[in-house]
Design goal:
- The complex is a heterodimer of chains A (113) and B (115).
- The termini of chain A are far apart.
- Chain A is built from no helices and eleven strands.
- With 113 residues, chain A is mostly beta strands.
- Chain B is mainly beta.
- Helices cover 0% and strands 51% of the residues of chain B.
- Chain B is built from no helices and twelve strands.
- In chain B, the strands form three sheets. In chain B, strands 2, 5, 6, 10, 11 and 12 form a six-stranded mixed β-sheet that branches.
- The relative contact order of chain B is 0.35.
- Classes of the chains: A mainly beta (113), B mainly beta (115).
- At the A-B interface, strand 4, strand 5, strand 9 and strand 10 of A face strand 6, strand 10 and strand 11 of B.
């Protein structure tokens, strides 16, 4: 199993600013995933973050808007850049368990005003 | 690619009633994994169960039970004798090695249990 610490747990930000979300895992993992959950919606994968390489973004998400860092096997950050109210969502990081339980952080509830 | 359909948007029941949540999946993979997650109002995702494609045994865990049927590509979830604490959004999801274990989620079903 893996324990994931994600912070901040929530934030209220001004439009045009950026927020960096941190995700710390208590064990080394190859792949980390970042998901977005817009209000009342399901979870959508933003990108896959592998250590030592650039993140792979899903359709509709771009690096300029959601830059990701993965400096080592236990840590990743997601930045939401130049925020607008449409970016208000819950952002979750996850680590894959090779088909076993996929572990999730507690989520970051972002409100952009 | 994989896809999950949860046709039920919202279900409202009275406490102690049973509730069944439907999940239909699509995949071309022979090896895949199905999940159910619960998301209470606090927002965190709570893992409930995982099933791999080679294990069609139904499972019961307390008041929860799951019915996996490959013939109909379904992985339904039943809460028996529902309680108010069961009120949450429930997500069905699928992943596969061919997709680097990325999870594809259904739209979710909101369950409201009234006292």
């Amino acid at each position: 199993s893996a324990v994931i610490s994600q912070k901040p747990s929530r934030d209220i930000c001004q439009r045009g600013t950026s927020l960096t979300i941190q995700c710390q895992v208590d064990s080394q993992v190859t792949m980390m995933f970042w998901y977005r959950q817009q209000p009342g919606q399901s979870l959508t994968l933003i990108a896959t973050a592998n250590q030592g390489s650039e993140a792979t973004y899903e359709s509709g998400f771009v690096i300029d808007k959601f830059p990701i860092s993965r400096p080592n096997l236990t840590f990743s950050t997601l930045t939401v850049s130049n925020m607008s109210p449409e970016d208000s969502s819950i952002y979750l990081c996850s680590v894959e368990g090779r088909g076993t339980e996929a572990f999730f952080g507690q989520g970051t509830r972002l409100t952009v005003v | 690619a994989q896809k999950v359909t949860q046709a039920q948007t919202e279900i409202s029941v009275v406490e102690k009633e049973d509730v069944t949540l439907d999940c239909v999946y699509e995949t071309r993979d022979t090896t895949y994994y199905l999940f159910w997650y619960k998301q209470p109002p606090s927002g965190e995702l709570v893992f409930l169960i995982r099933r791999n494609s080679f294990d069609e045994q139904n499972e019961i865990s307390g008041r929860y039970s799951w019915n996996f049927q490959k013939s109909t590509s379904s992985f339904n979830f039943t809460i028996t004798a529902s309680q108010v604490v069961d009120s949450a959004v429930y997500f069905c999801a699928i992943t596969a090695p061919s997709n680097d274990y990325k999870l594809s989620f259904g739209a979710g079903t909101t369950v409201t249990v009234r006292a």
